[in-house]
């Protein structure tokens, strides 16, 4: 960088003015979008192409700014101080002869990168301004005011897979097995029904007969109905036995239950 | 509030320019624009009526046309192209549970009467459900049954076999196979559509020992 | 959802007729229409690209112009007539400087990560800034970058192009000059990591197709 000599010249007659400018900037510190923004503003005071700015002079200006801010007891955000420290480091790099070992990036490289960053930020600012200045939709350019919506006609196609079908069938066929019994009035004989039937028939029952003989015709075959008829008829016969109208007997456990009329002698 | 014509300070535009201006205004407006309103927004001395007439002629026979609606004007899509503003969307939806069950019963029991379907399902089958299956081309009317009342029967169609990849309705797996394949549902909770899987099935099977 | 092309059964229309049809569709829509969508709604075999080009030429210099926006097309009023139409203008929230700069960086550097945006601006980018741009429909998430951490990238949308009257991101003002000046390069600070500029450049080349 060509910084050194140039900067020394400038400082001699421009420093007062610059200090004043720095103070003005400090008042405005809230208005900056960070240290890079501030550096960009400072670089403009050099009034040259960004590619030709003296990074050393810029670093001086920035450090001067931070110094003034301290004197004026203005709180600066941490990133401003980080930048100040970095610029102080850069300044020393630029002023000292390069490290012969050459491991670290040289002051020139660092300065060049900072110059690139400033130029890039400036370029993006200008690009953003150009973008915003374009004729914009809804401001200078307009879309169709009375847009006609496309009418969408929806139709529905139903589908089912073989699996759906089989599951549905299985569901239907097994539903009966699990249906809550209260739902099954059809297949359920109540004790009242059995009692009515038995009362009507028992007058004829002079001989012992299996209670199943008293089931209605259509309650004999289907196991479920037969079970229900058995239970209801058995309960009814207990009731009639209690009333003293019939007798009950069973040969042994699980043997058929038989009833007959009890003659009131 | 008074409107200050924005462009009144300019000279009256050429016919060509007036047409451009009207074109833009009419295009951007959400509603038909009264010619008086357009005149107010154009430089003084603009021949609005003439330019509108020229514009109408320019668009005649195009895909959009400039129409006069009372005192106002608007661009409108040419009437013969209205169909381009329509789109047909077909949505695929799963067949309802009632319809699937009814279809399954028809497939397994065909030819089957409506009363028989209801007998198997344990609930009444709505007219609409069978109609839907007929509309879909999966079910058709079979021969009448030779029982009192000669009720109509329902059978599945070629289209049904085709859709489900079956040679014939006899290819449908039996209950035993369904159970072996773990396809038997458990009891559906009343009201809820119970599509639950295997684990419970097993438990219930052993419980009821069928 | 399957689309059934309404007019597929007809023969391909003449150029004149295809123009009318496109004109009607495009005029009716406030949003840009993708050419694929238009092709779907037109009879099979229609030379959509050719008819669109012809239509664009026909409207050149008129009050309403046919603009290409990415893969889509839309009629828009000519930019020089905005003053006549200001009454239609929708007052949009004024974007902050942070937002406009972030937008420009995304547009010129896309696909770009948040860290890269911060690198250019020299300050952290608040969550809200990018959210606002996304809300406005100008920015969306792009593909993740193939770098450690696979950070998400941001790119500009078709809505952005439409809003700023750009046919593609290649037409951004000053893009060529910025590229030539190397200002769109991703240049890592000296001493920080390797010289991996090649890969980045390639990505941008393919994006901007230069």
From TrEMBL, chain A:
InterPro entries: ScpA. This is Segregation and condensation protein A. PANTHER family: SEGREGATION AND CONDENSATION PROTEIN A. Pfam families: SMC_ScpA (PF02616). The gene is scpA_2. It comes from Limimaricola soesokkakensis.
Automatic annotation (TrEMBL), chains B, C:
Transmembrane segments: none annotated. One of its GO terms (biological process) is cell division. Keywords: Cell cycle, Cell division, Chromosome partition, Cytoplasm. It comes from the Bacteria. Residues 182-210 are annotated as: Disordered. It comes from Limimaricola soesokkakensis. Residues 194-204 have a biased composition (Acidic residues). This is Condensin subunit ScpB. It holds the Pfam family SMC_ScpB. The keyword tRNA processing does not apply.
């Amino acid at each position: 960088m060509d910084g050194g000599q140039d900067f020394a010249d400038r400082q001699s007659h421009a420093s007062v003015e610059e200090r004043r400018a720095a103070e003005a900037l400090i008042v405005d510190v809230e208005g900056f979008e960070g240290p890079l923004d501030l550096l960009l503003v400072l670089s403009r005071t050099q009034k040259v192409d960004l590619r030709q700015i003296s990074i050393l002079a810029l670093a001086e200006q920035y450090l001067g700014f931070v110094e003034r801010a301290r004197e004026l007891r203005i709180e600066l955000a941490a990133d401003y101080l980080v930048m100040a420290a970095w610029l102080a480091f850069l300044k020393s790099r630029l002023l000292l002869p390069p490290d012969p070992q050459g491991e670290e990036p040289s002051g020139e490289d660092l300065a060049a990168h900072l110059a690139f960053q400033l130029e890039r930020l400036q370029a993006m600012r200008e690009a953003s301004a150009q973008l915003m200045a374009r004729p914009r939709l809804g401001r200078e350019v307009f879309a169709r005011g009375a847009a006609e919506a496309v009418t969408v006609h929806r139709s529905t196609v139903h589908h089912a897979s073989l699996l759906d079908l089989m599951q549905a069938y299985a569901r239907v066929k097994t539903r009966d097995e699990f249906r809550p019994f209260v739902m099954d009035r059809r297949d359920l004989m109540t004790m009242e029904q059995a009692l009515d039937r038995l009362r009507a028939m028992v007058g004829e029952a002079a001989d012992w007969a299996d209670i199943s003989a008293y089931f209605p015709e259509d309650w004999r075959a289907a196991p479920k109905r037969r079970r229900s008829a058995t239970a209801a008829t058995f309960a009814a016969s207990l009731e009639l036995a209690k009333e003293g109208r019939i007798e009950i007997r069973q040969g042994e456990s699980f043997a058929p239950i038989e009833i007959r009329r009890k003659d009131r002698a | 509030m008074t409107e200050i014509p924005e462009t009144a300070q300019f000279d009256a535009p050429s016919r060509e320019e007036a047409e451009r201006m009207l074109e833009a205004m009419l295009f951007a407006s959400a509603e038909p624009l009264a010619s008086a309103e357009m005149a107010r927004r154009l430089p003084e001395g603009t021949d609005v009526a003439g330019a509108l007439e020229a514009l109408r002629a320019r668009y005649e026979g195009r895909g959009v046309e400039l129409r006069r609606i009372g005192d106002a004007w608007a661009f409108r899509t040419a009437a013969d192209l209205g169909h381009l503003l329509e789109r047909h969307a077909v949505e695929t939806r799963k067949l309802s549970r009632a319809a699937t069950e009814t279809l399954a019963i028809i497939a397994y029991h065909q030819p089957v009467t409506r009363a028989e379907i209801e007998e198997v399902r344990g609930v009444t089958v709505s007219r609409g459900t069978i109609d839907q299956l007929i509309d879909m081309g999966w079910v058709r009317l079979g021969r009448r049954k030779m029982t009192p009342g000669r009720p109509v029967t329902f059978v599945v169609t070629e289209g049904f076999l085709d859709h489900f990849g079956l040679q014939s309705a006899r290819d449908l797996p039996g209950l035993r196979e369904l159970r072996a394949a773990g396809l038997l549902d458990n009891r559906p909770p009343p009201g809820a559509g119970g599509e639950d899987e295997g684990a419970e099935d097993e438990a219930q099977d052993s419980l009821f020992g069928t």
